[in-house]
Amino acid sequence: MMNAATKKFVCIFLFTALLLGILPNQTVAAFTDITDTQTQTAAAVLAGMDITTGTTSTSFSPNTQLTRAQFCAFVIRMTGQENLVATAARKNLFSDVPSGSWYAGYVNLAYENGLINGYGNGTFGPEDCVTYGQAATILLRVLGYSSAEVGSVWPSDYTTFLSSLGIGQGLSLSDSQNLTRGQAAILLYHTLETSVKGSSQLYYETLSQVSDTKSVIILDTETQNGYTEVYSLTDGTYQSYPQANSLSADFTHSIGTLLLNSAGKITGYLPDTQASTTVTLKEVKSSGLTDTSGTFYQIPSSAVLLYQNETYSYGTGGYLHAGENLGAQVTLYYDDDVITYLTLATADSTQADTVAVATTASAETELAQKLGISGTSYTITKNAAAATSQDLGLYDVGYYDAASQTLRVSDYKVTGYLQVASPTIANAQTVTIAGGTFSVLECAWESLETFQLGDRLTVLLTDDCQVAAAYPASTLTADMVGILSSDGRSVTLSGSGITLSASELSYKDQDLGALVTVTTPDASSLRCTAVSSSAASVDFTQGTVGNLSLASNCLYYEWTGAGPVYDLAGNPSQSSSSTDDLIWTDRLSASQVSYYHVNENGLVDILLLKDVTGNCYQYGAVTAYSGTDGINLGGNNNLTSYNNAVALTNSGGTTAKYLCALSTDAYCGLVVKTYSSAYQQVCAVAALTKLSSVGADAVHLTGDSWYLSTETLELPISQNVEVYLKTADTWLSGESGFLHVMSTDQPLTVYYDRTPDTGAQVRILVVG
């Protein structure tokens, strides 16, 4: 048992340690009283290494002055000697540092390590404020320096030498100035990352509590089982590490060095200076992404996307996953101004406390009330895109993502026959409806249990496509619009990306790859019908389609009037969430609009535009074939019926032959649709205008875009321009092609589409 004196010592120690912020670290939250990034980072690093926490769970008191004894405590904890403090506290080395004081062990250890000398008269002055000169002296001694290397003039030689090592960077202090907790934190943090005298090792690498290090991206610092989840850049794998010390939530989605002890537990983390930025996704292309502020970020194809514990090259699938999560936050990591990694943070509705359904026209107010959201300091997304209250309506599903303070709303619905419920309807984990299988949230069980297998119903889905509620189809029917696959086996619904299929899927061949409406006539079939024509003029500056308003989350498609649909950047079977690729106008006539869809709120949420960008076409050199060199449509009855055909050559190689009426070779653009399993047919041709003998100096970069200028024209160059090097008989595409053009002195032949006042772009450059 403790005697009275011991109890008194423990109480004094705990009280003073609380004020200092040196109690063992349990959880590390962001400090709300720090306003500058440098101090915030330093404080978080020190807290994560158990050198100091805050004065409270959320306060660091960065402007409070620090005593000499307190600074000794920080330094001893940084050196990893906390386990020696209790023994050292029994000694009485200074007359004003009694053995029973809370700081005796720290001061005595600092003296025994040669870090301090006291005032030379047997006293130390533990309650005196520590000055910059005194702190500089102690930290240089920690790193192994003495007056022989530093100089004999104190304190100026010491502060100057400390600055030369970069430890005082970001601070403007005089030698005799008293240090605050925030300033001390910055000095200690920089010391950790400074080389020890005569060694290439950084100071933190010499600590006994650091047995291993990993270069990582922190994915989650607050898992329920006490682990920190990371992506290891060292190993190229996802890892979970137990925590000897908790890390600040500030470090989530940062890149840096993880410190591990001999047991493989986390003892600290040091963020890199490598730049990163976190943005909210508005639009995604294979060439980069646009955030909700309208800023475009160019992303190399080789950049790595981290998403749901998988890694994807951005240009070969990563951008598709990002495009499925519009409205989500993504962090971009730079190396020499080039984005190398991306982490995609998606909300998980299964973790939401409540999922609610709007049953009145006052959807936002109702959802906020049901979800317990107070105040107005939250943002709204609908269908994973930024939205406003005007976009919300009856039967919308919503949940609150507290991490990003976002009300996430969806109007995704599917109507069909209930085909499968597993394990049972009453507690279904998954259901299959109209050939699509969906995860089921518990909140949907009550409405689902009123149905039987074979019933026709409509399910309401969250923005990550989980069932939140079910209604009889007689009460509510989904207006389903989607893209029919080129093989006619499935249809992908617009916006949600849900894929439906059936053993009997009826359609017309001309609608393969096109935008269709989807109905479910019976339990085993789907019927796909081309969307009906509904033309109207569009004013994007006013946000109107005829006398209707555009929804904030409107999706844009383009086609040539026949065949498959594309997004405005030219990606097949995709949609755009903005009109950024429509670079030549803010207004379209009714003849340039093939179809628009009006949602339950009377807002236009789908627009199918007719050949407004020129990006639908594949551009290159067309080789024409006729007679027996064409395509035989005689069938399987030994008949011969040859039709003209073409093949297209560009940076993607040479295609198979397409049925086409062209009879001469040319540089042009083609749109191809699947006609049957036997062949594909050209359904649109873009003729190109030729400019000969253009010098390479006509190509120039303005802002983020390339242009070609002549005496009479200035034409934007398509981001996917095809470049043909005649001498090498080689095709290049995009920026690699630009760079070759810029380095050549050979004449260029330029091919552009359309007219300058209707959005002309350079599509092909022939070198030589």
Could you describe the 3D structure shown?
- With 768 residues, the protein is of the alpha+beta class.
- It folds into seven domains: 4-205, no CATH class; 276-345, no CATH class; 349-410, no CATH class; 413-530, no CATH class; 538-610, no CATH class; 618-686, no CATH class; 687-767, CheA-289, Domain 4 (OB fold (Dihydrolipoamide Acetyltransferase, E2P)).
- 15% of the residues lie in helices and 35% in strands.
- The chain contains 13 helices and 48 strands.
- The strands form eight sheets. Strands 35, 38, 39, 40, 41, 42, 43, 44, 45, 46, 47 and 48 form a twelve-stranded mixed beta sheet that branches.
- β41 and β42 (680-694) form a beta hairpin.
- α2 crosses α9, α3 packs across α5 (104-112) and α6 crosses α8 (156-164).
- The protein is globular, with a radius of gyration of 34 Å.
- It starts with a helix and ends with a strand.
- The model is unreliable at 1-29 and 349-353 (pLDDT under 50).
Largest sheet: 12 strands, mixed
- By DSSP (H or I, 4+ residues per run), the number of helices equals 13
Assembly form of the protein: single chain
Mean pLDDT: 88
Count of separate structural domains: 7
Shape descriptor: globular
Euclidean distance between termini CA atoms: 94 Å
SS strand fraction: 25-35%
Task: Report the radius of gyration as a whole number of Å.
Answer: 34 Å
Q: Any low-confidence stretches, pLDDT <50, length ≥5?
A: 1-29, 349-353
The helix-and-strand class reads alpha+beta
* Number of DSSP E strands: 48
Helix share bin: 10-25%
